[in-house]
């Protein structure tokens, strides 16, 4: 990997994926997008990994798609390359994915953050969809996911003016889970990851899948889907272990089976 640092066991059961193009503020070029996809695919298949944290550095999570690489492209180039569909594949990642965001999360960087299941932000984090200032618009979920996350009015304002919002405002709007001082955002993400990694990985995946269904279907179908996943957890050893541990007044040990 040229632009990614991957630590599969940064903590027990928790992998860390770090974008590493610091000079370009982690601008997402084609290579970096493909590396993120490939890394997540490998971590999804690695049974020892229960939760993944994706992060950048203090100054930038990612300042968007690489403008210099995109500038001269034609519509047909963009269509044939279809790299933003690659970014969209990240949505299929089945394990809990936590974004630890500091500094700029702009354009494709904001879209990448929004594909995460949970977000921990540092106080310096800024979120924005500034594509309009470049004469274009979001292309990897920025209109769709942002509107679902923060509502139509705020999404319209952000996408049409290109203005950024602060970590505090993102928190108030429900875009991020928590905001912590800049020296603590990664540690806080690890704390959150550890508490999820201690749960049944089977139940965590099924629960994630069920919540994501909310955005893809209507209530009746979503409730049906949820119920089936709930029943399915009873096929796992982890459910037997979790309930036995409660009855026996001890801590459960989930094995992911
Ligand atoms: C390529 C980028 C970049 C980007 C920053 N850089 N963002 N290169 N693509 N998206 C480069 C700069 O050119 C510069 O390199 C170096 O990173 C540092 O950036 P500066 O501008 O000098 O830093 P600063 O003054 O602190 O400003 C930071 C910034 C600004 C506000 C984040 O860089 C900025 O506005 N960047 C563009 C943000 C943006 O428009 N993102 C949306 C992209 S479109 P050099 O070599 O010049 O020093 C997009 C479409 C997505 O994401 C479609 C679907 C995925």
SSE order and pairing:
Blueprint: E1 4-11, E2 14-19, H1 30-45, E3 51-55, E4 60-62, H2 67-70, H3 75-81, H4 83-88, E5 97-101, E6 104-106, H5 108-115, E7 118-122, E8 126-128, H6 144-150, H7 152-161, E9 165-166, H8 167-172, E10 178-180, H9 185-197, H10 201-213, H11 219-233, H12 237-247
Parallel strand pairs: 2-3, 3-5, 4-6, 5-7, 6-8, 7-10
Antiparallel strand pairs: 1-2, 8-9
Hexanoyl-coenzyme A is lined by residues 24-25, 27, 63-68, 84, 87, 104, 106-108, 111, 130-131, 134, 138-140.
Protein name: Enoyl-CoA hydratase/isomerase family protein
Family: Belongs to the enoyl-CoA hydratase/isomerase family.
InterPro entries: ClpP/crotonase-like_dom_sf (IPR029045), Enoyl-CoA_hyd/isom_CS (IPR018376), Enoyl-CoA_hydra/iso (IPR001753), Enoyl-CoA_hydra_C (IPR014748)
Describe this structure in words.
The chain is of the alpha/beta class. The protein folds into 2 domains: 4-197, 2-enoyl-CoA Hydratase, Chain A, domain 1 (Alpha-Beta Complex); 201-247, Lyase 2-enoyl-coa Hydratase, Chain  A, domain 2 (Orthogonal Bundle). The chain is 45% helix and 17% strand. It has 12 helices and 10 strands. The strands form 2 sheets. A 6-stranded mixed β-sheet has the order 1-2-3-5-7-10, with helices on both faces. Strands 4-6-8-9 form a 4-stranded mixed β-sheet. α10 packs antiparallel against α11. The longest helix has 16 residues, at 30-45. The model has no long low-confidence stretch (mean pLDDT 96). The protein binds hexanoyl-coenzyme A. Keywords: Lyase. This is Enoyl-CoA hydratase/isomerase family protein. Belongs to the enoyl-CoA hydratase/isomerase family. It comes from Hymenobacter ruricola.
């Amino acid at each position: 990997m040229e632009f990614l640092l991957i630590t599969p066991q940064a903590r027990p059961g928790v992998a860390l994926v770090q974008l590493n193009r610091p000079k370009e503020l982690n601008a997402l070029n084609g290579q970096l997008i493909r590396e993120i996809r490939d890394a997540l695919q490998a971590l999804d298949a690695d049974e020892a990994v229960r939760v993944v944290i994706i992060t950048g550095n203090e100054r930038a999570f990612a300042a968007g798609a690489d403008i210099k690489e995109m500038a001269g492209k034609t519509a047909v180039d963009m269509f044939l390359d279809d790299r933003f569909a690659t970014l969209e594949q990240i949505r299929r990642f089945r394990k809990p994915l936590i974004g630890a965001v500091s500094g700029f999360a702009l354009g494709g960087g904001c879209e990448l953050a929004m594909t995460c299941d949970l977000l921990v932000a540092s106080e310096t984090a800024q979120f924005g969809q500034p594509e309009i200032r470049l004469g274009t618009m979001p292309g990897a979920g920025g209109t769709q996911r942002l509107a679902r996350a923060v509502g139509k009015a705020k999404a319209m304002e952000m996408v049409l003016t290109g203005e950024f919002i602060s970590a505090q405002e993102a928190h108030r709007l429900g875009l991020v889970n928590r905001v912590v001082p800049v020296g603590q955002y990664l540690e806080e993400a690890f704390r959150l990851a550890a508490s999820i990694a201690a749960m049944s990985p089977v139940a965590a995946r099924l629960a994630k899948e069920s919540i994501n269904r909310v955005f893809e279907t209507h209530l009746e179908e979503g409730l049906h889907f949820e119920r089936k996943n709930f029943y399915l957890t009873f096929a796992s050893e982890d459910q037997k272990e979790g309930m036995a541990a409660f009855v026996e007044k001890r801590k459960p040990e989930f094995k992911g089976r």
